[in-house]
Amino acid sequence: MPARPSLLYVTDLAYPARGRRYCDEDIDLTARLRESFDLALCHPRDTTALMDAFDAVVVRNSGPVLGHQEEYDAFRAQALARGIRVYNPLHGRGDMAGKRYLLDLTAAGHPVIPTADRPEDLHRLPEAAAYAVKPKAGADSIGLRFVPYEELAGLTYGELLVQPRVDFRYEVSFYFVDDLFQYALYAPDPERRWVLEPYEPTGDDLAFARRFIDWNTLDHGIQRVDACRAPGGELLLVELEDLNPYLSLDRVPEKTRDRFVADLTDSLHRFLAA
After folding, report:
1. What are the b/e assignments for 118-133, b being 16+ CB within 10 Å?
2. C-alpha span between 61 and 117 (Å, rounded)
3. Nearest 10 degrees: Cα torsion 134, 161, 71, 84
4. What does the longest C-alpha to C-alpha distance in the chain come to?
5. Cβ partners under 8 Å of residue 270, min gap 6
6. 111 contact partners, CB below 8 Å, separation of at least 6
7. Could you state, in chain order, the average pLDDT of each consecutive group of 10 residues for the chain (274 residues)?
């Protein structure tokens, strides 16, 4: 019997996510992937020590990198130096590389919440009742706060991003494997952003999401495009999650979940063969 490909699946099963159980998603997903791969789970702090024994490393619900920044930086450096296959590949341009991309997308005129990181650029932001201030290396709303415009000048810039607080109608996320759209979920109540329901995207919605998938140029991997429906009806990008996006697979029908696992399995086989 030929050897099956082996995967080191990186997850923090004890990460205390608000309103979600990351561990349940990874337990279910790894059970399904074991039908096609030899697989072992490990904590993100252990990845560098273990990764040489596997055909690829799959980074999934590993929690915010801020919780293990030194270990993550070492893993990333060693994986690149030693040619370790990492899924998602480490050249992603979205959250994997920090929040700088929000500035780049703003400057290029993409439909994104306008973002600035220098006091001299604050005048380019639209007027708002309050402004979101977040660290460039932030995740999972860590470090996020809202301040009035008068306080922006007194901030210490360099590692901060500033955005107008958008009075959005709802948030919606689009999930992709490689360039294949899988499903969309939305939070109809802005005050309960983790209570997600299936969302049927329009053609314009999918075109919006695909422009960011195309911009990111990842041939392989799982990506989540997070957006908000602005008061004028347009979608604005909130985040392009290409490091370890939580998938909310428990919120989609079984048929959709089966298709996702099948497409992910095919993607991993193509990735290993590339």
Report:
1. eeebbeebeebeebbb
2. 29
3. 130
4. 69
5. 178, 220
6. 208, 234, 235, 236, 237
7. 85 84 94 97 96 97 84 94 97 91 94 92 88 77 81 83 91 97 94 89 98 96 97 95 95 97 98 94
Tokens of 258: 């089966």
Whole-structure pTM over 0.85, yes or no?
yes
Beta pairing partners, 56: 7
CB 146 within 8 A of CB 134: no
Residue identified by tokens 């689009």 is: 174
Answer whether 233's CB lies under 8 Å from 220's CB: no
Contact 173, 242 (CB under 8 A): no
Structure-block tokens of residue 14: 């004890």
Looking at the chain, which runs of residues are DSSP E strands?
Answer: 6-10, 38-42, 56-59, 86-87, 131-135, 145-147, 160-164, 171-177, 180-187, 197-198, 222-229, 235-241
